[in-house]
Description:
Layout (H helix, E strand, L loop, with lengths): L1 E3 L7 E3 L1 H8 L13 E8 L2 E8 L10 E5 L5 E6 L4 E3 L4 E3 L8 H11 L2 H17 L4 H6 L3 H33 L7 H11 L3
Antiparallel strand pairs: 1-3, 2-3, 2-8, 3-4, 4-6, 4-7, 5-6
Amino acid sequence: MINFKDDNIALYYVKEEYIKWLQEADSRVSKKGNRPFVGILVGKDNINYLIPLTTQIKSRIKRLCVDVKNTNGNAISQLLLNNMIPVDDECIDKIDIQNSKHKDFLNAQLQYLRKTNTLDEIKKKATFVFDNFKTASFLSEVCCDFFALEKRLDVWIEKLEDEMDCAIGEQAWKEFVASGKKGRPWEELIAEFENENGD
């Protein structure tokens, strides 16, 4: 079941280090060069996926693409469903459109993306991709390996949690030592610290 993370569709940046992390597992993850990796979020099961937008308008497989149009009916960008990537809140940032130099262009995209028929089209095409990418040979060739990327995301989250635990531990230790514990044997300090912090 596909759903949208936001009641009102929003645009997000993906952090560059996370994109590089995914590319180590699947070379089909889009390489944007100096361009930001921007898209919208959809939910599949309990995982959020970002569908990237591109301004490189060209003929693409219709079932894997959604044209985003301006008020004149001209395509101004495209959603690439074959390039969806799993994401976590820690690797994305919501775009502050009101303070962006591309405000008018971003708002024009959102205006089209928030239309009911556009939302229905995104859901329908995303469902098709997720349901068939492993069994339809042409999809497995052009789509990212969603299963491999989901596993890669899990490792990313574990890595962040370990780094956070380490940072919290280091800060607690500094505060512990600074609270008048200096001058005592290290073994005694460590034992008392671990006892106080439940380790």
